[in-house]
Amino acid sequence: AGCEKETSSYMWIYILLGNMLRGIGETPITPLGISYLDDFAREEDVPVYVACLHTIAMLGPMFGFMLGSLCARLYVDIGFVDLENITITPQDSRWVGAWWLGFLIAGVTSFLSAIPFCFLPKSLKKPEEANNDKTVHGLLENTGTTRKTLPPAKLKSRKYFYTSLKKVLSNRMYFTFLCCSLLQFSSFIGFLTYKPKYMEQQYDQSASKSNFLIGMTSLPPVSVGIFLGGLIMKKYKMSITAATKFAFSMSFVGYVTALLHFFVGCENHVVAGMTVSYE
């Protein structure tokens, strides 16, 4: 009982609020960015541009892992204590890296990269073939809704939003794609979250080296795959049906390949009180 005490630090609240603000700022990039590309780029070029956008989005975590690896090599109180008096090393289980340093570096970088967006024009000239008056494609085409049938002057924006949201979610193709994306990203996030810990415990690696290896081996192939997928779609000018078959084929191959992980493993470490008794 004498070893138990309640935490007196509320720093986690600042981290929670910071991540909320970061999420709010990052959210518009993907939906609005893709819509922007779809509106102002030629139809055959959109897959490549979207692939480039997602490729860069995957390279970001790669550099993040590498930055985390660098910060993990530095002691948590760097700048506040004399490092010569630190007797432990990153291989010691008591070592705590400078986890907070990555937030500062990423925050400053994000702020500087956001400045050029302030100088973008409010509107661009659409390609010549896009100037024709067209109905809304994709998710709303099956509902018979066009840009002219719902004039903003007659419908409130909030009512229009909920009506559009209902029609989008009732679209079977979109809802199926949404469920597939949910399952895919859930597995991918779990993979990235626990694989570094597995490497630390199973192979006796430091947190710094584990993060570095994950960033260098796991994320670049994903980025290359996304980019190649965009090039293939552009080259063969795939329709929705062809793109669906292509995605299914690649996902099936990835699933079969992932099954090989079940045949690769190591024996658990001998841990007193967990895998063996204290005696």
TrEMBL record:
It holds the Pfam family OATP. GO terms for cellular component: basolateral plasma membrane. GO terms for molecular function: bile acid transmembrane transporter activity; sodium-independent organic anion transmembrane transporter activity. Keywords: Disulfide bond, Ion transport, Membrane, Transmembrane, Transmembrane helix, Transport. It is a multi-pass membrane protein. GO terms for biological process: monoatomic ion transport; sodium-independent organic anion transport. It is found in: Cell membrane; Membrane. The chain crosses the membrane at residues 48-76, 96-120, 173-192, 212-233, 245-264. NCBIfam families: oat. This is Solute carrier organic anion transporter family member. It comes from Indicator maculatus.
